[in-house]
Amino acid sequence: MNRTNFEKQLEELHYDVLKMGSLVEEAITNAILSLVNHDVGLAQKVIDEDERIDKMEIDIDDKCVKIIIMQQPIAKDLRIVITCLKLVTDLERMADHAVDIAKITKRIADQKYIKPLIDIPKMGEIVKEMVKLSLDSYVHQDIKLAKTISQKDDIIDGLYKQIFSELLMFMIEDSTTINQATQFLFVARHLERIADHATNICEWVTFLESGKHIDLNE
């Protein structure tokens, strides 16, 4: 293995992952804002940008495969490349959920909301923090920080149940709210899944450092 060349390739890979992470964070932020503000233009921007994120995942995957073939890394070096492969998969899926939220914004943008959006934006803020912290744990290879994410995931699960119960009551009491309430339930579900992917990233950070895959949702 040419160590100098290998380290340069890893540095480029690291930069690409963080760039993709930044775009995904922006997509999540814009998707939530578009819903809160009935902003169809912003929602469309999230949808349009997804192609760029998808391409980044493919490019990073290709780089990882080439590094493995050409450099044949072992031990922690190999774990670094594997972690990058896994991270971009989770990031791409987060972006897909952001796109789904943006599509819901477009679907109900011309409707008066059945209630002020309070818990969904709150859930969104926590999810965004989880994504940021998961990427921070990757940057600093910080297992302790990674393990704190699971605690926030419990908060997200609690908020999802709260939103579900509230919207269910709306649907029971007034059948005309069923369509919109269902859309909001989908939004909450997408946010919950993004939080799960953030936790996945943290699990791969622990793998990177320890060589063991630990389930942080236990």
Task: Explain this structure.
This protein is elongated. It is mainly alpha-helical and 218 residues long. The protein is built from six helices and no strands. The protein has one domain: Up-down Bundle (Methane Monooxygenase Hydroxylase, Chain G, domain 1), CATH 1.20.58.220. It has helices spanning 3-36, 40-71, 75-108, 119-140, 143-173, 178-210.
Please estimate the helix content.
over 70%
Report the span from N to C terminus.
39 Å
Query: How many strands in all?
Result: 0
Shape: elongated
Q: Any idea of the CATH class?
A: Mainly Alpha
Helix run count: 6
Please summarize the sheet with the most strands.
Answer: none
Q: Summarize the helix and strand pattern as letters.
A: HHHHHH
Number of domains: 1
CATH topology: Methane Monooxygenase Hydroxylase, Chain G, domain 1
Mean pLDDT: 94
Helix/strand-derived category reads mainly alpha
The radius of gyration computed from the alpha-carbon positions, rounded to a whole number of angstroms, is: 19 Å
Query: How much strand?
Result: under 5%
- Which quaternary structure do these chains form? single chain
- Low-pLDDT sequence parts: none
CATH superfamily: Phosphate transport system protein phou homolog 2, domain 2
